[in-house]
Amino acid sequence: MQSQSSNISIAFFFAFMALTLAITYWAAKRTKTTETFFAAGGEITAWQNGWALAGDFLSAAALLGIAGIVTSNGFDGMVYSIGWLVGWPIILFLIVEPLRNVGKFTFADVVAYRLSQKPVRSAAAIGTLAVISFYLIAQMVATGALIKLLFGIPYSWSVIIVGTAMLIYVLFGGMLATTWVQVVKAALLMAGGAFLCILVLAQFQMNPVRLFAAAAERYGAKVLQPGSRVVSGQWDAISLGLGLMFGTAAMPHILMRVYTVKDVKAARLSILYATGLIGAFHLMVFVIGFGAMVIVGPQAVLKAGGGGNMAAPLLAQAVGGNAFFGFICAVAFATMLAVVAGLTLSGVATLCHDLWTNRHKGGEGDRV
Amino acid sequence: MTVSSKALERGMVALARSRLTVAASLSFAMIAIYFGFMGLFAFGKPVLGAMLAPGLSLCIVLGPLVIISSFLLCLLYVYWANTIFDRNVKSTLEQA
C-alpha cells in the first residue's frame, strides 16, 4: 500500500516538475532586462499576483504544520493561522503605498530614498539576508525531512533535488517563472485543501459544528477551548502575536511582489485577493485538522512520525484513498519548492540590486 | 505658475494626509481586533472557552471572525483607495 501510494505521489510530483520547468523555459526566453528579471516587467495582473502572493506565503507549515497542531491540540492551532493572516492588512495599509511610490525592486529602495544610500542599503540587505537565510534553512530542512517521510527518498537527495529545482526556476526564469510556479502551486494547494475539506464535511452533513461536536465528544470539550500546550505563558501569547502580525508584514519575498504589477491600484487589489485566499485556506485547514482528529485520531497521526505533520496526508488517505494521499503529498512538495524559490529570488534581488548595484557600483549598471 | 504649483502642493499634502488618516485608523482597528482576541486568549481563557452550543465555543466563533474581519478591512481600504482616493488625486492634478 505504502509503495503504491508513493508511486502515485512521485508521478504527481514529476508532472508538477515538468510543468514548472516548461514555464521556466518559456519565461527564460522572455526575460531580457533587469525589470523583467526582478519584477516581471510589471506585467503581472492583480489576480495572478494575488494567487502568487498566496503561493509565496502559504508554506508547507500552513497545511501540514497547522493541521498537525490542530489534530493534537484542537483550537490552539488556529492562533498561528490567525496571526499569519492579520499581518496582511498591515502590509496593505502602511507598506504598499510607500513601496510603490519610491521603490524599484526591494524595500531598501524606500528606506534609502531620503537617507544616506550606502549604509542604509547595507543595513537593509543584512536584515533581508538574515531573514531569508533563516527562513530558507528552516524550509530546506523541513523539506528534506518531509520528503523522506512522504516519498522515502533519502534526506540529502531530497535537499539536493529541491535546491537544484529552485535555482533553475530563479536563475533562468526570474520573477516571471517564479510567479507562475507560485500560481500553479497555490491553485493546487487551494484545490487540494478544498477537496479534502469537502470530503471531511460530507461525513458531517456539511456542517462544521457537527464535526467539532464529534471531536468534543471523543476527546473532551477542551479541544474546542483555548489551552496552554501550544502557547504556554500569558505574555508569551502577546509576544507571539506581535511577532506574527508585524513579522508577516516584513517578509522580503512578499514585499517584492508589490512591484510585479503595473500600478498601485493593481498592487492593492492583489493584496486583497491574497488576503482572501489565505484566509479561506486557513479556515479550511482548521476543518482539516479537526477532521484528522476525529477520522484518523491523534495517536495514529503521531505514530506516523514527523511530529504530527502527517495529519493532512493521512486524512486524505482515509477519506480519498491512495491516489488522493499521493496528490496531497505532491502538493506539499510543490508547496515547499515554490516557497524556497520565492525566498531565493528575493535573496538574489537583495544581493544584486541592493549590495552590488547600489552599494558597490553606486547605482550604475543595474543589468542582468 | 507659482500660485497653481503652491495650490497643487497644498492639495497633494492634504490628500497624502487623508490617506494616512484612513490607513492609520484601519491599522488601528486591525490591531485592536487582533490584540483584543490575543488578550482574551492570554488572560481570559475561561471567557473564550465558554460553550455556546454542543460543538461550538466562543473562540471557534471569534477566531474565524478575526480572519473574516481582516479581509473586510482590506476590502474597505481597497474600495476607498481605488475609487475615492485615486479620483481625488486625479482631479487635484487636473485642476493645477
UniProtKB/TrEMBL annotation, chain B:
InterPro entries: DUF485, Inner_membrane_assoc. It comes from the Bacteria. Keywords: Membrane, Transmembrane, Transmembrane helix. This is DUF485 domain-containing protein. The keyword Transmembrane applies. One of its GO terms (cellular component) is plasma membrane. The keyword Transmembrane helix applies. Pfam families: DUF485. The chain crosses the membrane at residues 20-43, 55-80.
